[in-house]
């Protein structure tokens, strides 16, 4: 019987999403991931090299997904924050993965796609500020950080809504 490598990798990544989100990098267990995926744990090492390699690949995929799903719209930062809010609500595990990554690695080992996307977004915000479309009260990187963190509000505040996030960002960028 020929095994489908991509299907097996997909099952492992799917199983790993919940495992890493719940237990973090240190607490995740390859035995549980393999069992949930219905494969032998040796497949994790064959496809990803290590538990950490599996985590890194999973994080990269999730970051790429959100970058593609929610492109920056510097002319509409409230809408951008609202779309981020919705995306995080659809995949709350991403925020936990990112938090565990930061806890384990600090800010030294930021995934390349995330760093590139961040620089692109900062440039877009700076351009909108130079054109007078949004407030220049904060520098572009600080403003982007504030907008992104407001979109995460739902996960630390039980009554947060997309409307609240968008309204807050509107006030933040008002001249």
TrEMBL record:
GO biological process entries = regulation of DNA-templated transcription
UniProt entry tagged with the keyword Thylakoid: no
- What superkingdom does the record give? Bacteria
Write out the GO MF terms: DNA binding
Annotated DNA-binding ranges come to 29-48
Classification via SUPFAM superfamilies: Homeodomain-like (SSF46689), Tetracyclin repressor-like, C-terminal domain (SSF48498)
Name the chain's protein: TetR/AcrR family transcriptional regulator
Name the species this protein comes from: Lentzea alba
